[in-house]
Amino acid sequence: MLSGVLKSPRAVKVNGSCGVASHATAWYTYLCENLFSGGGRMQKRNVTLSMPTDLIRRAKALAAARDKSLSELLRESLEEKVTEATGYRQAMERQLRLLATGFDLGLRGKVAWSRDSVHERG
Q1: CA 23 – CA 65 distance, rounded (Å)
Q2: Residue 80: CB partners within 8 Å, gap ≥ 6?
Q3: pLDDT tens-place string over residues 73-93
Q4: CA atoms within 13 A on the CB side of 8
Q5: Can you give the pTM of this predicted structure?
Q6: What are the structural domain ranges in the chain?
Q7: In this structure, are residues 79 and 68 in contact, taking their beta carbons and an 8 Å threshold?
Q8: Residues with Cβ < 8 Å from 9, sequence gap 6 or more?
Q9: DSSP H stretches of helix in the chain
């Protein structure tokens, strides 16, 4: 079954890389990125998204201004959000561990003042 797909004229292997016709389907893109590329890259999946037309138009313009594809722009944005969320969670867990451990204030467990004396107005 796979051998028939690999012989398709739309997916052509050239000098170790995959050249794909401009109107290639996502399936051919998948084959090129995962079968022809020789591995070593992160496996990718195609995802269908529904977005407002105006947002897509502006995102395409932004991607073009940055000399990137819309897929690259979206992937980078998602990676940034996931990394940010992961970093926040790790920082929160680190701070909660510090709170649970406490800090050495050099008092050796004895407080030499009372609450009232600290808040006294003079």
Answers
A1: 22
A2: none
A3: 999 999 899 888 888 888 988
A4: 17
A5: 0.45
A6: 1-46, 48-101
A7: no
A8: 21
A9: 2-6, 26-31, 53-65, 70-101, 115-118
